[in-house]
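Title: [Solved] Cysteine desulfurase 3D structure

Original question kept below for reference.
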Amino acid sequence: MSIYLDYNATTPVRPAVLDAMRPYLNSHFGNASSSHSRGREAKRALEEAREVIASALGAREKEGVVFTSGGTEGDNLAIAGAAWAARDRGRHIITSVVEHRAVLGACRALEAQGFEVTYLPVDAGGLIDPEIVKQSLRPDTTMISFMHANNETGVVFPIAEIGQLARGRGIVFHADAVQAFGRLPVDVDALGINLLTLSGHKIYGPKGIGAVYVRPGTKIVPQIHGGEQEHSVRAGTENVAAAVGMACAAQIALESMPTENERLRVLRDRLETGILGNIVGTRRNGDRDQRLSNTSNISFQGVRGDSLMVALDLEGIEVSAGAACASGSPESSHVLRAMGRRPEIDGGGIRFSLGAGTTEAEIEHILDLLPPLVERVRAAEIQGIGVRV
Ligand SMILES: Cc1ncc(COP(=O)(O)O)c(C=O)c1O
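Solution (posted by the thread starter after getting help):
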């Protein structure tokens, strides 16, 4: 039995998405910047895709959607782009310690270029307190950047409340919605968002495509220079097939969101209560309620996350080690450490992230298999022989 429970890492392309993309990979292969028929056909498809993404975000202006090569480029474009655009007003940025590395990396690069970044802590449940955000505001703060949902724990930040702090102060609010989009309603007006990052491959679309929503009036400096594609914000020939695929995937995700969320919540809770109730030394990482319905991150005391991940892989079960290493080495999860978890005491974290293909039978199979497997890995670790299962 092969079981994939790593949907926060990536998702398979849905058949309908592949069907929608196919023509733009062969017969309709035109360059969206070409003026002839094939070019115009590609342009039309690209603009339709833009429209779909904009309306999925509740955005009135489709021009606000800028296609990128994915979430990482989107985070870099939004953060560096807005920071440089506002550099004459101030150079202070606020974010959190649990952001994705795409955001942390973009912030570190800005620090090296003379910007100042405040990395706010989270509580034991992985949540941020909007009051701390408020206290961190400075006259020279030009941007606040927070993830909507955390990729490791699924914890959902109070984005609307944080958005209100930015609004009216002339501060740009960027949200990394790579994990949230397609799983939670994301409305850029209701959330007070200026800039929002999306990625195609987390929503059953293709890899290598993403988008940044840019609110009209929010200034960003391009990070890739060249042609005038994407309203001169992001140069480079557009990946029309992937944009069409992402739009199709977004439509399906939004339509199925309410029922799929409920289905996954039931399966996730069954998995989580089964593990916490039947395996000693286990602990949930992340607030129980303020969480994506598909994600469960659990620490297993006395077990390295990567050891258990490999042991599960040998049984045909693919998960992610939230904390790559239980020895407290620099590789251990920055998210779990920020929540006060000590990998050497609490054990490594395993992220189970459920998705469209997850079934009840799979969850029951894991619940049968896991207790003896964890015992074997624990015994092996005590003897210092690593993964011998
Ligand atoms: C929260 C978050 N932001 C950004 C990214 C980067 O997206 P991409 O893989 O499309 O570059 C990811 C991917 O894991 C993510 O989970």
